[in-house]
């Protein structure tokens, strides 16, 4: 019986998220066709995420936003266990560019929007990965921050333990000489698990922003240490949040 209600709830969630996106799609088109407006996609993202979560009864909680200076560019690095992670950054404090897997571009309408406003990458191809990296830096310009999931996809087989981080996010931060913000998403994988036919669970969606890490004066030799530092911060927060949940 519990699974039956979960199926009904999942169906309702799908109707809400897809229906709202279709309603908002014309606004995305207006933004897409004017490059100077690309940074304003965060406004539509917030409307979509806020209304959708309200209608499906999922509350949200943000910690650490006081660390973020909206006038400063950042590279946001988060754990990645669920497709809901993309929705979470609809609540980012500033306009962002996502780097996501190339399969996202195949989703009707959403894929078109994502490819035009953000960056898709085929990580199996080194050439494509390099071009995607350069495009991400270009789309950031001087006024958009970058969201990357340094695991390189939903790769962990022992969630909530993370897969090893790749270098891209840390290289981008060093090239741009901008801070990295570790972000912990402790609940999305429970709400929307990475399964072929997932059933959605209703619970609070938490998002923890950690104190920015400066990359000023760093070079590519510092990537391994920087990567390890960010990994440890997010990993420790995941453990803390999950232990607190089950106390």
TrEMBL record:
<feature type="transmembrane region" description="Helical">
    <location>
        <begin position="9"/>
        <end position="31"/>
    </location>
</feature>
<dbReference type="InterPro" id="IPR002123">
    <property type="entry name" value="Plipid/glycerol_acylTrfase"/>
</dbReference>
<comment type="pathway">
    <text>Lipid metabolism.</text>
</comment>
<dbReference type="GO" id="GO:0003841">
    <property type="term" value="F:1-acylglycerol-3-phosphate O-acyltransferase activity"/>
</dbReference>
<dbReference type="Pfam" id="PF01553">
    <property type="entry name" value="Acyltransferase"/>
</dbReference>
<protein>
    <submittedName>
        <fullName>Lysophospholipid acyltransferase family protein</fullName>
    </submittedName>
</protein>
<keyword id="KW-0808">Transferase</keyword>
<dbReference type="GO" id="GO:0006654">
    <property type="term" value="P:phosphatidic acid biosynthetic process"/>
</dbReference>
<keyword id="KW-0012">Acyltransferase</keyword>
<keyword id="KW-0472">Membrane</keyword>
<keyword id="KW-1133">Transmembrane helix</keyword>
<feature type="domain" description="Phospholipid/glycerol acyltransferase">
    <location>
        <begin position="74"/>
        <end position="188"/>
    </location>
</feature>
<keyword id="KW-0812">Transmembrane</keyword>
């Amino acid at each position: 019986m519990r699974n039956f209600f979960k199926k009904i709830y999942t169906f309702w969630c799908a109707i809400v998220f897809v229906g709202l996106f279709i309603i908002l799609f014309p606004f995305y088109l207006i933004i897409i066709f004017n490059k100077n407006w690309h940074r304003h996609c965060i406004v539509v993202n917030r409307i979509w995420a806020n209304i959708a979560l309200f209608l499906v009864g999922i509350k949200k909680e943000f910690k650490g936003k006081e660390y973020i200076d909206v006038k400063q560019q950042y590279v946001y690095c988060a754990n990645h266990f669920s497709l809901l992670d993309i929705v979470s950054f609809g609540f980012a404090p500033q306009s962002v560019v996502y780097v996501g897997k190339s399969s996202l571009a195949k989703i009707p309408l959403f894929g078109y929007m994502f490819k035009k406003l953000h960056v898709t990458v085929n990580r199996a191809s080194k050439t494509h990965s390099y071009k995607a990296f350069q495009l991400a830096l270009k789309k950031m310009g001087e006024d958009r921050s970058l969201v990357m999931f340094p695991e390189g996809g939903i790769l962990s087989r022992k969630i909530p333990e993370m897969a090893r981080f790749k270098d891209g996010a840390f290289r981008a931060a060093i090239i741009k000489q901008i801070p990295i913000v570790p972000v912990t998403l402790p609940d999305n994988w429970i709400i929307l698990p990475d399964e072929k036919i997932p059933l959605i669970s209703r619970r609070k969606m938490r998002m923890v922003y950690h104190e920015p890490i400066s990359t000023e004066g760093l070079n590519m030799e510092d990537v391994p240490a920087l990567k390890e530092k960010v990994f440890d911060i997010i990993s420790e927060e995941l453990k803390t949040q999950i232990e607190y949940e089950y106390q």
